[in-house]
Specification:
The chain has helices at about 15-40, 50-55, 60-65, 75-95, 215, 220-230, 240-275, 285-290, 310-325, 325-340, 385-404; strands at about 1-10, 115, 125, 135-140, 145-150, 155-165, 170-175, 190-195, 200, 205-210, 280, 295, 305, 340-345, 370-375, 380. With about 400 residues, the chain is of the alpha+beta class. It folds into two domains: about 1-175, no CATH class; about 190-404, no CATH class. A hairpin with a 2-residue loop joins strand 6 and strand 7. Helix 1 (about 15-40) crosses helix 4 (about 75-95), helix 6 runs antiparallel to helix 7 (about 240-275) and helix 7 crosses helix 10 (about 325-340). The protein is globular.
Amino acid sequence: MIRAYTFLMRPTVGQRQALTEMLRDHCSLYNGALQERRDAYRHVSVTTVRYGDQSAQLKEIRAFDPECQGRWSFSSQQATLRRLDKAFAAFFRRVRAGEKPGYPRFRGVNRFDTVEFPKDGDGCRWDSTPQDPVTRVRFQGVGHVKVNRHRRVVGTVKTVSVKREGKRWYVVLTVEQGEPEPLPATGSVVGIDMGIADFLADSDGGFVSNPRHGRTAAAKLADAQRALARFPRRKAEGRTASHRRAAERVADLHRKVRRQRLDHAHKTALDLVRARDLIAHEDLVIRNMVKAPAPRPDPDRPGGFLPNGAAAKAGLNRSISDAGWGVFLTILHAKAESAGREVIAVDPRNTSRTCPKCGYVAAENRPVRDIFHCVGCGHTAHADTVAAVNVLRAGLARRNAQAA
């Protein structure tokens, strides 16, 4: 089992400068490799450039530029080239699937914020001992950096990554662990229905409120973005101190909302995993749910369009994104795996239109958002609770079918 740990680093002024230069030089390597691939793509007579070809050139690049590329870990530079290769592999996969391709783009210095070391001990070293109160991580070209290790690392460290978020620096460890010890069985199962008015409703009639962190911070964020918009668009190195502070203010607000959303998702998922042996949820394709509606051309007015509800759909999309369903479900599956719990995703179709008493399916069963009233048998309940009950039944049926 692979698990990730993220710890805050406390570099000195010199180490902070060295870490910034490391990101800058890896960004330059990434962009140079991308330019080489673009040139090969434009000239059809040139053989396609792949990761193996570019990795073989690293030795010459390091010898040509020892002050920048030559002082960093060889394996971390290979990881950067592999990162570009994965971007191209995803690009060609989307092309074959008929999706929007999204050709890999050049990265600005401020948008390249991660460097990976594929193996602990090769260009980096995680120096953590249980007896030492001060934990450090060593990076080639940077030195030993203090780490705020707020929890014990269990397992064998496989990869080490450096990540920058605003003014803060983090070290991310991927650790290989043995099979986790499952939590004691509770004999309880639950189905959950994700929502916007309430973050989720369960099959037992319980509800978890939606904190709406993005909406709460919207006013402050709008003010900060207006303040940033007053400055002319410039590259990071050409910004004034006031411009940099305005940009950092916007980034800090976004970062705070993201962390609040993560905190809520972790706590909600942990409560479910501790109390239930099986959790069933809807198999939501959130990427499709937040798509903008297709335009409707007006046949009577060339070049004109009919109303398509885009404004209302945009508000719904913001609410779905603010709820963070995808983040929550990812965390739920990870915590359930660590705790030995079972999580089942079921087809979401008609879960809120099917009567749990008689099984009658009709859109009229849900006259308003909160109320479920079966036109067949007259059963009345909260619509989200009914959906959660149907999700649980579908999850149990799927588990029994798999067991058989």
